[in-house]
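Input chain follows. Return structure tokens only.
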Amino acid sequence: MSVRPALAQSALSSAYGQRSILLCVVLGAAACSLPHSMLRQDGGLQDARDVPTDMRNDVPGDAGDVIDDRPDDVPDSGIDMDVTDTGVDVPDSGVDVRDTGVPLDVPDTGIDTGVDTGVDTGVDTGVDTGVDTGTCRTVTCGTTCCRAGEMCAPDSTCAATSCDALFAANSMITEGVYRIAPPGLPPQPTYCRFSPHSSAMGGWTLVMRSVYTYDGQTSLLATDYNNFYTTPVGNPSPGGVFRLPGRYWPTFSVRGGGRQEHLFVLTPRTDMGADCSALFFKFDDGRWTFTASGPGTISNVPGGGGRFFNSNPNGRFHTTSDDMTMSRCVTDPMLRSVPWTYNNCGGFSPARQFGMQNGGVPRPFLVDLEMGTDIRGTSLTTACGSATPLRTTDNYEILTSVEYYIR
């Protein structure tokens, strides 16, 4: 492509076009017909010295070959480059300067110095403390915010009326020891079991636990009626002997007409001293009645509950050491049963001594436990697997523990 005078005159707006016109004026019209490639950007003529070394005798792949990756058409930088030719021909150094790739116009970084940092000091951390802007979401006792399902007890501490009340307020609550305060009664700690099976949904309040021990801890449960009615025994945490005072038992009721539901959790024991899997037995009727003077009774026991609530000729009476009917079940040195309903001291007992067998201390037991299955369809044989359940000589199954819950 050649530069012609008319074309040079039409390019007056560009620095290169202006230098071409200046060259025509200085060197004469002949210079205007020179090829474009013979014109230097400074307005002079190229000679042999002006030709870059990589264009003369260029050997491909030569180590000294400097690559010019700059595009032929350099974009207008926006800077006026019109410099008057001094007439001095500056010799070309012969070195092709590599394009740095950085345009003269620095692009906008996109960062607005007044931009929001993105941190909202009032943003929700995602942790629910249970308190919304300083306001307790449930009930406040003094400075304490109670958990869902709890209320402010008479001693100004948080407690629930039952384990079922806790479950009704929060079905995701975990099993453990909670403070229970039925209406008109002071708070007492007990263990809450929640929905052990689909047929036993809800919160179950532990009222008594007897355990297989060698130190006679279960004997602590063998009390007179007054202590049974008013005094808690033991530790509600798993594995410990425990009893909630008898006056609390009738307060737990979720069924119409004041009826109660009952759950027995029995852990059989093998003849090698290991625990079998627990068995669960549930009954949907029956109600305890206890008065300050005693004795206690349980009424409306369903047929299936007969194996747990023994009946004597006068009804299902709760027996303590000072009960005139079956007190010998508790006071006899060869029996030493814990307070329960008895018929001739047999059938089922949360704990009873069998003469001098098994160490001569009260142990939980149930006769004919191998018969039938629990609410999950599990039998004694399945619960113990290949192991042999521990039995007395008269075929009573000895248990590691008996836990009795009401709701």
